[in-house]
Amino acid sequence: MEKSxxxxxxxxxxxxxxxxxxxxxxxxxKIKKTLEDPDCSLDAVIRLVxxxxxxxxxxxxxxxxxxxxxxxxxxxxxxxxxxxxxxRTVRNIATAVVVQQLAGSQAKNELVTQLWQHSAHVAALAQxxxxxxxxxxxxxxxxAGIIHEITWFYLLAREKHYPGLxxxxxxxxWNSDEDLEDETEVECEVKIGTxxxxxxxxxxxxxxxxxxxxxxxxxxxxxxxxxxxxxADQLSPIKSPFALPSQQAGHHISSNIDLLADQETLSDxxxxxxxxxxxLTQALCS
Length: 286
What we know:
The structure is a single chain. The chain has helices at residues 3-15, 23-35, 42-51, 53-63, 78-101, 109-134, 138-147, 150-158, 170-174, 177-181, 183-199, 204-215, 225-235, 253-260, 266-272, 274-284. It contains 16 helices and no strands.
């Protein structure tokens, strides 16, 4: 079956409300739903986090990143980590775990690893760009960066049911010049990703920012959440193996933003924030 036909089938599944998640993801989604309950006590949250190794590892790692832990005092337990980073970040990391587990254990490990590393770099860069350039909420930008590749994690999860959707030539096939002219495929990709984000109860403004990234129209000067994500995506040292054609024109972005900076150039900002970006990226990849 051709790629475009497979995407159409998957988009039809989505329209019919047939989102199919791996068992590991369903478990993570239940945890996420419980964490979002306003009546969930701190002790209950801590017990939930402690019972999920991947979630607890990431939360402790995030708490030890330079972004959240300015004192440098090492955090070694879940309770201290949750108290330091706050419930909002805990819920965001729970959603990140859902996204990371979407592809399941049977998916192509190299592609999943590259996709997650790219997501982590975009999240860390988005946090800095939001704080220093676009003046968006840094935590929201980081969260949006973590989940912006959700379509591709889902497609990797469904690949075993649709052989040929993802193969050894995945990057070149998804990035071919023909895709640039095939709006139907891009529309299917956006439809699938939007439906998954809504299923995960991601707020509408964040969904709009991620869709803006997928569509790839960077404004100058960059001011919105979508602009923040586009800048971070194009500056990421690790590229997505499934980058849309609209996301591949980032080689002039540094010079363009530098021209708009009043006091600091983008390169200066990124250099000054290098340790923050590195620390946060490592925490997200833990």
